[in-house]
Amino acid sequence: MTDSFWLVLAIVLYFGLMVAIGFYSWLQTNxxxxxxxxxxGLNPFVAGLSAGASDMSGWLLMGLxxxxxxxxxxxxxxxxxxxxxxxxxxxxxxxxxxxxxEVANNSITxxxxxxxxxxxxxxxxxxxxxxxxxxxxxxxxxSGMVSGGRYFESTFQGDYLTGMLIVGSVTxxxxxxxxxxxVSYTDVVQGALMFLALIIVPIMALVALDNPGEVFSFATxxxxxxxxxxxxxxxxxxxxxxxxxxxxxxxxxxxxVGQPHIVTRFMALSSPAQAASARRTGxxxxxxxxxGAVFTALVSTVFFAQKADNVTDQTGFETIFLDLARILFHxxxxxxxxxxxxxxxxxxxxxxxxxxxxxxxxxLYRIVARREPSHTTLLVLSRTMVVLVAVVxxxxxxxxxxxxxxxxxxxxxxxxxxxxxxxxAALYWxxxxxxxxxxxxxxxxxxxFVWGSSETLSGIIYEIxxxxxxxxxxxxxxxxxxxxxxxxxxxxDTAVRVTEYATAHPESTFDDALRHVRGNRAGDxxx
Length: 527
Description:
This protein has helices at residues 3-28, 32-37, 44-56, 63-71, 76-103, 110-118, 124-156, 160-208, 218-221, 243-250, 260-268, 275-303, 320-328, 331-368, 375-397, 404-428, 434-453, 455-458, 464-481, 488-504, 510-526. By secondary structure, it is mainly α. Helix 5 packs across helix 11 (260-268) and helix 5 packs antiparallel against helix 12 (275-303). It has one domain (3-106, 122-400): Sodium/glucose cotransporter, CATH 1.20.1730.10.
């Protein structure tokens, strides 16, 4: 049997498993809230792994190893920033966001939370947030489509467009069928595949080398990949790198707070207390995956030194992980390992498709509908929007003009600047107002677009830095010039106290914590 047969068999089995999970989740999805947020019943282990898998996308196994292979350890500042951001997001945002989204009129999307948190009756805040989600996630999903096309180019030496269509179609299918549960459950399987692959591939590549110890010195002295005479600064994290570049790379961590596809997992937990367990799962998974990606790049400098023509992508070298697996393993095992890349691509795309669909239906359609639509209507519309967004993203990905990391970086900055300051202020600053939140979002998104579109400005520092800075200034200034609506203080205090009680009593449910807080408040009023 040919190599292609075994590779195709592994991929088909993987696709079949994903669709089967989608159908299983469909059986558990009885109403619209189930489709969008799993009715707030997500297991903390699933939440931790799902948040990591939906976060990483194809850049973890393709974009990041490629960047490290080409530029050296100066790219590690991104990893440092992202790891710290992951931990901080779970520590300080997850518990309070879980509480506050339910206290604030049971908000099931980030835009609806912003509206309910600020008591905005104009609907402008919610609509603006939804539009930002639609715009930036279309770019983000497009990066996944590009990853899918390049995956098939490398694995099967096939057609980019065909690969993009296959990966996109299967992802749409199980997301369309099973909604949030399907996305979360498939994330667990996909996260496990990514975890194992990033351990196995660099270890086997290291064993295949004649002198494994060379990985820690080879790149500085010898020709490899894009460096015909070696890169003497390969292991130096600061040589040839400006302070602005280091700050820009570290600032990737700022983006976590504003990523809807990540923070939605916080909202889906059954209790704020479960955030601690989910944090341990998520940060451990992320740490091991980063180590695997770094060692993939290190081993590849030696492995491909004499075999550079075996690298499919000769420009960004974003296929080195795929090429190692293809060369080192029997086609069946290589196929199983290579599904990890599909897992990374599809786990992120599915989350983003679902969030974008929710923004279109929950945060745009429902606020203009003349009467409240039925759950059946909402489910049909949500599934239709999943397909529509995917089609638009595919069209954008037909002729990609940027690297995977470049596409992801632009969308990441957009969400980090537009939503990050608003999320933090909503959870920790009772003085936030709707006009302030709108100003922060608009200024943050506009700054990223302008800064990221300018070669001069983007060459100075990553656009997320000025985006977050200007958004924060606008948010604070406008909030101080306007007044919060009545009732916000009481809700703010309730959310804080529910979080504190649930964290101190891990066995308690959200309803237990809410009853305790409201009971104490009623007792105080009686006294």
